[in-house]
Amino acid sequence: MDDKTVGDRLAAWAREFDPHLEALLSESPQVSERLSEAMRYSALLPGKRVRPYLVTEVGSLLGAAPADTRPAALAIECVHAFSLIHDDLPAMDDDDLRRGKPTNHKVFGEGMAVLAGDGLLALAFEVLATQARSPQVAAGWVAELAEATGRQGIIGGQAADLQGETQPLDAELVGRIHRSKTARLIQSACRLGAIAAGASAEDYRAVSDYGLQVGLAFQMADDLLDATSNSEALGKQTAKDTDSGKQTYVRALGVERARDLVRDKLDLALEALARFGARADNLRDLARFVVERDH
Amino acid sequence: MDDKTVGDRLAAWAREFDPHLEALLSESPQVSERLSEAMRYSALLPGKRVRPYLVTEVGSLLGAAPADTRPAALAIECVHAFSLIHDDLPAMDDDDLRRGKPTNHKVFGEGMAVLAGDGLLALAFEVLATQARSPQVAAGWVAELAEATGRQGIIGGQAADLQGETQPLDAELVGRIHRSKTARLIQSACRLGAIAAGASAEDYRAVSDYGLQVGLAFQMADDLLDATSNSEALGKQTAKDTDSGKQTYVRALGVERARDLVRDKLDLALEALARFGARADNLRDLARFVVERDH
Question: Are B184 and B256 in contact (CB under 8 A)?
Answer without folding.
Answer: no
